[in-house]
Amino acid sequence: MRTFIAVIMLSVVSLFSCQQEPAIKTVGVEEFAQIIQDDAVQLLDVRTPEEYAEGHIKGFTMIDVKADTFSDLVDEMLVKDQPVAVYCRGGRRSLTAADILVQKGFKTIYNLEKGYTSWVEAGKPVVK
After folding, report:
1. Any domain includes 6
2. Contact indicator for 82, 75 with CB cutoff of 8 Å
3. H or E element at residue 31
4. For residue 120, which of 37, 59, 33, 49 has the smallest C-alpha distance?
5. Is residue 107 part of a domain?
6. pTM given for the model
7. Which residue of 35, 36, 79, 80 has the fewest C-beta atoms within 10 A of its own C-beta?
8. Is residue 81 within 8 Å of 52, Cβ to Cβ?
9. Per-residue confidence of the chain (128 residues) as pLDDT tens digits?
10. Domain enclosing residue 36, as ranges
């Protein structure tokens, strides 16, 4: 009986020690700025078209997470094997989008903490 319990405990410890990093990693402005320099990272702005037109981070593609077509457009435009950097205005919608991406099989998603607002407040460049 002791051997059986020991084997079960060892299995549980092994299971937890082998888990992968979370697919969604929320990062600050400076780390996000570094991440998006990598050409392999897909750049996704999930705000509305109106918000995007008011200003956005250069190189980001806009797919409104609130749109009925969000899921279909993600399937058409993004590659599941490549990391995705995502932001919205304040960080809430981008987490929703990141959750959807994880459900679709994306492995690595970088979410900008406090969104576009934090980017602008940090004095980072934007396209208007």
Report:
1. no
2. no
3. helix 29-35
4. 33
5. yes
6. 0.84
7. 79
8. no
9. 554 444 344 444 444 444 566 799 999 999 999 999 999 999 999 999 999 999 999 999 999 999 999 999 999 999 999 999 999 999 999 999 999 999 999 999 999 999 999 999 999 999 99
10. 21-121
